[in-house]
Amino acid sequence: MKGGEVFLATIVDKKVDYYKEVPNEIASLLKQFENLMPPQLLKKLLLRRVVNHRIELVPETKPPS
Hints:
Blueprint: H1 24-32
């Protein structure tokens, strides 16, 4: 995907005695999209969603990378 935006998210354990400054670029993105994630994550996935996402694959094709 040349020229497109890519976002990466990871799950990190919180450590009480550890603090690291978040870069301004990341902080502005987090602020911009803060309404997309609930403050507390669910323990399990919901059974049904309004939109069911899927990736349709073409038979006998190789992934680009």
